[in-house]
Amino acid sequence: MTLHLIPHPDPDHGRAALMALADSLEACSAVVDRSGKIVGVTEAWQAFGGQNPLVAGQTLGASYADACRDLIRSPDGNLSIVALGLNSVLEGRVHRLSLDYPYPEEDGPHYYGCTAVLQSASEDILAVVHIRDITHRASMEKRMRRSERLFKATTDNAMDFICLLDTTSQMVYHNPALQRFLGQSDSWIASQKMADLVHEADRDRFMASLQLGAKAGLTQVFEYRIADAHGAWIEMEGQVSMVDDPGGHENSVLLITRDISLRKQMERDRENAEIQVRHS
Fold this sequence. Notes:
Elements lengths: L10 H13 L4 E6 L4 E4 L1 H4 L17 H8 L5 H14 L5 E10 L2 E11 L6 E9 L1 H22 L4 E5 L5 E4 L1 H7 L3 H5 L3 H4 L5 H14 L5 E6 L5 E10 L10 E7 L1 H18 L2
Antiparallel strand pairs: 1-2, 1-5, 3-4, 4-5, 6-7, 6-10, 8-9, 9-10
Helix pairs in contact: 3-4
């Protein structure tokens, strides 16, 4: 990123503008000169209250290069790896470093993001180091991954068909139940449009339900037929709802379908029995 400032005759004005900008950022930032010493820090760096040794105790004038070399031998493997990476930047062997790592602070485990950039174009400045507390972000990502695992476990073991479709009925996602029902490979199913698998007499109603789900957000339950692995037409009951697709597909709809062929057959058997009773 290149920062552009309005030209000013007083060089101190530009430096003050840069420091004001740096101090407004949440990251703890330090400037390291060619001798490996810290020659500039932000307010966040100075105010850091944790024990992370990549920031704590690293004051103006301290040798950051020596501190990183010492931390390479840390018994904390994560800290050792980050220190090794920083040392590579400070020795001019790596232009840019970006690593996330955990560190046990007094109030519990924290996660930090470390970015170091070599300033090869500068005669005086060797590198700029940014360290951010990303504990909240890491926690959110952990919860999201857990939710994704739970969702996958639920859908993978569901008896119902669960499909994510675009509004043309192209498959975006499907759970294993559909694969078991169709008896086809994942790659074959992924290349299909769901509407092409639906009975021709039900296809218009099926596509209308997809379009309605994309517009209204949720449809009434509707019925359609789809051929199973043996080519038999199976009666299904489905409902469509609009969802936000994390994969980036616009206007995705979620189709949840269950096999109602047994129920429909029982209804027909009951109707036939009633007709026979009336005519007996």
